Amino acid sequence: MTSFGITNGPAPARLTVGVVSAGKVGTALGAALERVGHVVGAVSAVSDSSLHRARTRLPDSQILPVADVVGRSELLILSVPDSELAALVAGLAATEAVPPGTIVVHTSGANGIGILEPLTAQGIIPLAVHPAMTFTGHDEDTARLASACFGITAADEVGYAIGQSLVLEIGGEPFRVREDLRPLYHAALAHGSNHLVTLVVDAVAALRAALGGQELLGQQLVDDDPNGLAERVLQPLLSAALDNALRRGQSALTGPVARGDTEAVATHLRVLGDLDPELAAGYRALSLRTARQARSRSELIEMLEGLS
């Protein structure tokens, strides 16, 4: 590779890519690489859903056993669940299936290049390239990669140059993550994205209960409509809150906890408890965390601590 894809220099060399396996992440990355001229020659797929993704997202790629995918790839993407990665690497090393000089990329957020050591000892170029993005299995996955950040861990500057080049080619933003800090990096992303989903789903459930059966401009509310009134009410509020938090940090906080309004928070806990005790427990835990960060009134913190 001779360029990072954003200069006027020569274009990076085209690589023959193999994907193991045809999950949401692997097929999205494969499709993104094909869009910039690389060739996904082969992909492994077993389940019906994986086969469908391989055929629809990578229609020009052959669907082959893992050993055949590995043997014909200059760039090998290992995109399997974290719990399966070590066993896959060990199996490939035991059979010496990966030719020396192959660029081997795994997409696990929690792992660095240490997990690739059995293959590194056989002469491959190890890379951990993790897209900081959530994947649904739909067409938007590939499009979102063009605006995503990618956490890269490599063994040396050559590895970092390769990883950064690949990410920049598909429109992403690369950044380095130290090997020993990959678990903390992954925990931060999981906390932000996974728990946000839980928070939003809980807020939608409570708002649906509060608005159920009412009308909006004469249109009857459908309680189980996933794009109903509750979602329309929350969307601009949550978007603004997220934008404010990312721009201004703790100073973006508003609402009863920020004001130290013990009575309002106690009322929230009561009505949420009537609706769903587990939802109320989540509200209490987040309120306590928020109150401590915001240095709210001691009465509020003591009330929340007393409910734990």
From TrEMBL:
Record domain Putative oxidoreductase/dehydrogenase Rossmann-like: where: 11-131
Residue span(s) of domain DUF2520: 149-290
Cross-referenced Pfam families: DUF2520 (PF10728), Rossmann-like (PF10727)
Name of the protein described by the UniProt record: Predicted oxidoreductase, contains short-chain dehydrogenase (SDR) and DUF2520 domains
